[in-house]
Amino acid sequence: MAPTSTPQTPFGRVLTAMVTPFTADGALDLDGAQRLAAHLVDAGNDGLVVNGTTGESPTTSDAEKAQLVRAVVEAVGDRAFVVAGAGTNDTHHSLELARAAQAAGAHGLLAVTPYYSKPPQEGLFRHFSAIADATDLPVMLYDIPGRSGVPINTETMVRLAEHPRIVANKDAKGDLGRASWAIARSGLAWYSGDDMLNLPLLSVGAVGFVSVVGHVVTPELRALLEAHVTGDVTKAKEIHQKLLPVFTGMFRTQGVITTKAALSLQGLPGGPLRLPLVDLSPEETDQLKVDLAAGGVSL
Which terminus has fewer CB within 10 Å in the chain: N or C? Predict the structure, then answer.
């Protein structure tokens, strides 16, 4: 059974978008996934997102996705929310993934904006509504126009929020003005999906984070959040500024690449990447070490 949720924080406050560990030969590493999940929850995560972009979902099979959800739920599902990525640019396929995630024990679904197809807003509305209708699980939308090609407009957010199971949004739009309006008008629980904007999004109404850098700085993210919630804006700003080198360094190239490199440096499960993603070069690894050290991360 998952931790208790509230309408304000349906998936907790601090979640990490977890990588999918692979073995040296590129197979799914379920033991490594369970060990990494336990490490992240021990570090202070309320929840984990699996089978998202950071989980290399474009290159894992449907069967692997279900196996991963089942393994992570088994490892930490009694003390953290396990949210499964189920969004694709094929609505029918997304419904299959949503049902498989529920069968595997997921506590919620993450549904990304359909990518490449560039559907109109009505298409987005019907796509997300169909996913929400497919299971009994609460749904977090994922608005990331830099990857998908289209934003979820505020009017569409307001319409989607009327669905009883569409309860949250992961915001990687990078537009604080539009976020402000959407938070105010939709009432959705808002999660920052852009680590550099974690603190700014809190200031306009976000309730938490779905983080990539949470792989290495979860305690600091939780401290930042708690400082903001308790009104200590000076401390929140200081933590934000301390983490700037980490925010920058972890996204000098594609985030999965740097995250798996950082995990390797810390002796944690991650393993290789699946093409078309490739490992950091030695020079890029050296730069990552500098960035993490500057942000106070021990390696």
Answer: N
Report d(CA 118, CA 40) in Å as an integer. 35
What is the percentage of the chain residues whose pLDDT exceeds 70? Answer: 99
Amino acid letter for position 284: E
Look up the pTM and report it. 0.97
How far is 192 from 211, CA to CA, in rounded Å? 8
Catalytic status, residue 116: no
* Cα-based angle 149, 114, 92 (whole degrees, multiple of 5): 160
Task: Please give the helix or strand (H or E) that residue 125 lies within, else none.
Answer: helix 121-134
Mean pLDDT of 245-272: 97
Q: What is the pLDDT of residues 125-142, one digit of tens each?
A: 999 999 999 999 999 999
Does residue 73 sit in helix, strand or coil?
A: helix
Letter for the amino acid at 155? E
Both structure tokens of 83: 């949210």
Query: Under DSSP, is residue 6 helix (H, G, I), strand (E, B) or coil?
Result: coil
The residue from 65, 115, 116, 142 that is catalytic is 142
170 noted as active-site residue: yes
Active-site residue, from 65, 115, 116, 170: 170
Q: Which of 119, 207, 136, 122 is nearest to 171 (CA)?
A: 207
CA within 13 Å, CB half, 133: 10
Q: What is the average pLDDT value for the chain, to the nearest integer?
A: 97
- Residues 232-244 pLDDT 10s: 999 999 999 999 9
Rg (CA), the chain: 18
Q: What size, in residues, is the chain?
A: 299
Asked if residue 83 has pLDDT above 70, the reply is: yes
- Average the pLDDT over 62-71 and give the result: 98
Show the tokens assigned to 231: 């009104």
